[in-house]
Amino acid sequence: xxxxxxxxxxxxxxxxxxxxxxxxxxxxxxxxxxxxxxxxxxxxxxxxxxxxxxxxxxxxxxxxxxxxxxxxxxxxxxxxxxxxxxxxxxxxxxxxxxxxxxxxxxxxxxxxxxxxxxxxxxxxxxxxxxxxxxxxxxxxxxxxxxxxxxxxxxxxxxxxxxxxxxxxxxxxxxxxxxxxxxxxxxxxxxxxxxxxxxxxxxxxxxxxxxxxxxxxxxxxxxxxxxxxxxxxxxxxxxxxxxxxxxxxxxxxxxxxxxxxxxxxx
Length: 265
What we know:
By secondary structure, the protein is α/β, with parallel strands linked by helices. It has helices at residues 16-35, 70-80, 117-127, 162-169, 185-204, 215-226; strands at 41-45, 62-67, 85-89, 102-108, 128-139, 174-183, 246-249, 258-264. An 8-stranded mixed β-sheet has the order 3-2-1-4-5-8-6-7. Strand 2 (62-67), helix 2 (70-80) and strand 3 (85-89) form a beta-alpha-beta unit. The relative contact order is 0.19.
């Protein structure tokens, strides 16, 4: 499975900031686990490396995960193979499922990569059963880029504010609620520092040459820019940040590190 700057891998945690990213992803899965009813049929659109299946608590009757990369699907099947888990590749278009197939749909840090958000959300709605729960997370644009500014992450086609995310979801779902995901003061300080460094690079690279660099170079550059202090010795087992350093708030959607969307079909 190819290494990219976008795919969170539980075995590749070598810096303090890596633990920050790992903890934030784990928080999303642990939150989802608390919302999934026993016996639910769960779909995850964009399962990444696949480790999230181990954090969902096993309360579901079945789990289906979609990804674009055949190698990622093969990796997940090998590492997390289980009769209740099904990992599938798809072409980014129509989901390979019948209408009204799922009770819960999860998609973490994916919508910002989607070219036609309306079609993508319509597909999510199509495969939802009546009353199904939809849980999405995405970076908060207010904390990252200015109005009209291109995302500095080369893989992000569009980033959302809380208002924009609600507007995107409203035509497809009911009871849409946008919350903020925020961290402890130490988490937020480190996140602000990371974003500031990335924005500095974007300011220097006004021609956007970083968008044209080959992936292996981008991975190395990302490690340098995001890297922070490397973990040493027993620190790898005593991670400085965990999911417990994150929380959600319905009153802090505007200034959260990430946005959390909860909706019903």
